[in-house]
From TrEMBL:
<keyword id="KW-0130">Cell adhesion</keyword>
<dbReference type="InterPro" id="IPR036378">
    <property type="entry name" value="FAS1_dom_sf"/>
</dbReference>
<keyword id="KW-0597">Phosphoprotein</keyword>
<keyword id="KW-0301">Gamma-carboxyglutamic acid</keyword>
<dbReference type="InterPro" id="IPR000782">
    <property type="entry name" value="FAS1_domain"/>
</dbReference>
<feature type="domain" description="EMI">
    <location>
        <begin position="45"/>
        <end position="99"/>
    </location>
</feature>
<dbReference type="InterPro" id="IPR011489">
    <property type="entry name" value="EMI_domain"/>
</dbReference>
<feature type="signal peptide">
    <location>
        <begin position="1"/>
        <end position="23"/>
    </location>
</feature>
<dbReference type="Pfam" id="PF02469">
    <property type="entry name" value="Fasciclin"/>
</dbReference>
<keyword id="KW-0964">Secreted</keyword>
<feature type="domain" description="FAS1">
    <location>
        <begin position="240"/>
        <end position="371"/>
    </location>
</feature>
<keyword id="KW-0677">Repeat</keyword>
<feature type="domain" description="FAS1">
    <location>
        <begin position="103"/>
        <end position="236"/>
    </location>
</feature>
<keyword id="KW-1015">Disulfide bond</keyword>
<dbReference type="InterPro" id="IPR016666">
    <property type="entry name" value="TGFBI/POSTN"/>
</dbReference>
<keyword id="KW-0272">Extracellular matrix</keyword>
<keyword id="KW-0732">Signal</keyword>
Amino acid sequence: MALLVRLLPLALALALGPAATLAGPAKSPYQLVLQHSRLRGRQHGPNVCAVQKLIGTNKKYFTNCKQWYQRKICGKSTVISYECCPGYEKVPGEKGCPAALPLSNLYETLGVVGSTTTQLYTDRTEKLRPEMEGPGSFTIFAPSNEAWASLPAEVLDSLVSNVNIELLNALRYHMVNRRVLTDELKHGMALTSMYQNSDIQIHHYPNGIVTVNCARLLKADHHATNGVVHLIDKVISTVTNNIQQIIEIEDTFETLRAAVAASGLNTLLEGDGQFTLLAPTNEAFEKIPAETLNRILGDPEALRDLLNNHILKSAMCAEAIVAGMSVETLEGTTLEVGCSGDMLTINGKAIISNKDILATNGVIHYIDELLIPDSAKTLFELAAESDVSTAVDLFRQAGLGTHLSGNERVTLLAPLNSVFKDGTPNIDARTKNLLLNHLIKEQLASKYLYHGQTLNTLGGKKLRVFIYRNSLCIENSCIAAHDKRGRYGTLFTMDRMLTPPMGTVMDVLKGDNRFSMLVAAIQSAGLTEMLNREGVYTVFAPTNEAFQAMPPGELNKLLGNAKELANILKYHIGDEILVSGGIGSLVRLKSLQGDKLEVSSKNNVVNVNKEPVAEADIMATNGVVYAISSVLQPPAIRPQERGDELADSALEIFKQASAYSRLLSISGY
């Protein structure tokens, strides 16, 4: 019986066939988009596909989910129409497209799919029509009628004037000597054509677009008795030069040619692979300042980074871009490639002047503006593109500009422009030293910083790193934007001016007349030594006004009881360093007294136990001080603790009463 139970699933699987035991092959992106179009068209009957048509053009696209809801292609509005899915046709009087197209040979199928011009030119050759009508198995990428009509007149004339050589060769280049369906069309593959075994480049993109030598596949997988027909939107031609060879023969790439040679990237651009080169023209190089250009051209590492920032890791034809998408360069940066109507854009700019120049190892798009990566820029150049121009101007005014433009490895802690909304400090020796303390002596990356790390500044100070749940701070200033890592320097955008620590907590309190009563209280409570030694403290420091606001009797009682005073003061001291940028909405900070302080921040106002802080982030070498306008009181004693205290008091009273009773007895009463 047990054996039967084990064998039953196997018997069922064998009876149901392979489909029951194995998942079917994964659908290609094109097939998934076609499936979505079929899903959107199903209310109109069987085998109906929803198609998006660009208003004012004949361009049509099978729709994916995102495009369906946005109803836009390259930012232009579309209308939805419903057509028979590839391979099906209408039947009079019936809904949808219930009938499969009848199978016929390749030649006749050309007319069915809307490539009658290809059919006509096939007729003009002596050899090709018999081949398309005869036995065999072929694939033809057939240009649409519109594709033939858009050819330049001189090109078309040269083809039709020599039909048995030029036209025949052109048509044979569109053919493959076997059946190839879309599920076999892989990104970056090459198919061998029937013209001198020349390669046809295939790219199959994640958005479902398939290109053939950068011509878009319009309708695919039309079966014929002797092969398959795919309709494409361009007449394609043979490709013979690699990317490097195209750079060498084009006059507009004179500066690029010299840069590639100097960087040693010519080996990459003439080798195997499938790349996209966003090729800067001579005009693009002329647009940047001569000083910047000469600096980069004279620095092999910066030059290589610059050129790698113009090379994408895979070939990308213009037809593949129907909406914005992120692409990665060989430099490791991300570019936003998009489109606006017929124009391609890079990072939102329409700087591509000529597109889809095919090479044997990829595709070239001409661009009229250099894409300089951060890794090839100075700190000055990085700051020019960030919201820290005011701080950088201060460095220039203070005569410290060489630190931001030279080859010194530094990290600049640059406050946002908004920090200076009330004005900038005067440039004097103190300000200059403060600015030097905004320069770290090494080139850092924030992702490698850790809590408690110390950083050495050019001004001679040691700065501490504090890492909180939602912020990363250096002393009182927290990072407000992603790093920008330049050639030699890194830019950290900070949310405020840095205030380096100037002494211990006790030094800070003694140096500020507002805290004279607190200093005396700390000395009376015996806490001076603790606040002078190394440690990590957050001190909520009551000002003199805070103490004076207490009832005189209560204040005198507190100051006269060293133990109670120490307990109250310890409640004002947290056991870690918490700067205001690390507070968030609410932090419960454990005090040295044992109870927790509730510290919150809203609209740049810090509160402790719901009391507003008068001044935040007074930095000390062993902590941070907040000035507050009231003396904080620990929470009321919990009921259990009060019960224990009452029990102890009762016991003590009982003991005293017993002793008094014995005393009376001894005395004869």
